[in-house]
Amino acid sequence: MRWRCFSILLGAMVITAALAGAVGAQQEIRTYQGKALSPFHRQYDNSIRGAQVVDPGKFRLKVGGLVAKPLALSYKQALALRPVERVVQMNCVEGWSELLLFTGIRVADLLRLAQPKPGAGWVIFRAADGYSSAMPLKYLLASDALLAFKVNGLTLDAKRGFPFWLVAPGKLGYKWVKWIVAVELSAQEYKGYWERRGYSNEARVTKPAKRLVE
Ligand SMILES: Nc1nc2c(c(=O)[nH]1)N[C@H]1C(S)=C(S)[C@@H](COP(=O)(O)O)O[C@H]1N2
Ligand SMILES: [Mo]
């Protein structure tokens, strides 16, 4: 009798798991270690051209420029680079912030795979909407910067930055490039979209924004 109960329970669990897998169900994580996270879905969108649709089949994550081993990884190949989870606060220069749980691959892992050539000093991130921003190679190798593919346990969508959203701890939101399609190493300092319009290229978070999107 006990065995029968157990097998029914086991059967139910297998069916539930199979169904969840079949529809690709993902449950949003809203708290992490006692902290309330900001929501994945929100109305507000402050990007230069709005949502972008990147075809996951055609997509290749390119890493080029001053590297010994240029890369062109499929979405699946990129995700195989040992993802990590981090809760990080993103601060927009406009005075609002979000606390989100990111799942992503380390930018440092990707860069080491591509083998930066001597003389490479800056890393430029280019996005599907024509947006770009860059950061020093030294910062990226030493920091916990990620190419995130999930937020709060949900795969990024056309609004949140699918396929990859750059997580740059300690840097203002305009360094957090969404819809990343290419990474380029350069010897020269590079100014991105907002940096060319007068914003600091260092973009250091000095005072985390109080206004948290919840
Ligand atoms: N590709 C791309 N990435 C981008 C932007 C953009 O316009 N295009 N805006 C940046 C800014 S200013 C911020 S604050 C963050 C979060 O913006 P969101 O509100 O559009 O999510 O994304 C950054 N990444
Ligand atoms: Mo921003």
Structure summary:
The chain has helices at residues 2-23, 75-79, 107-114, 137-142; strands at residues 31-32, 35-36, 61-65, 71-73, 84-91, 96-106, 122-127, 132-136, 146-151, 154-155, 165-167, 180-186, 211-212. The chain is of the alpha+beta class. The termini are far apart.
End-to-end Cα distance, whole Å, is: 49 Å
Give a quick account of the main beta sheet: strands, pairing sense, barrel closure.
6 strands, mixed
User: What is the class in the CATH system?
Assistant: Alpha Beta
State the order of secondary-structure elements, H for helix, E for strand.
Answer: HEEEEHEEHEEHEEEEE
Q: Tell me how many strands there are.
A: 13
CATH superfamily: Oxidoreductase, molybdopterin-binding domain
Task: Give the % helix.
Answer: 10-25%
The class by helix and strand makeup works out as alpha+beta
Give the domain tally.
1
Indicate the overall shape: globular
Number of helical segments? Answer: 4
- Write the CATH architecture name: Alpha-Beta Complex
Proportion of strand residues: 25-35%
CA-atom Rg in angstroms: 19 Å
Task: Give the overall pLDDT as a whole number.
Answer: 92
Say what the CATH topology is: Sulfite Oxidase, Chain A, domain 2
Q: What ranges have pLDDT less than 50 throughout 5 or more consecutive residues?
A: none
Bound molecules: the ligand Nc1nc2c(c(=O)[nH]1)N[C@H]1C(S)=C(S)[C@@H](COP(=O)(O)O)O[C@H]1N2, molybdenum atom
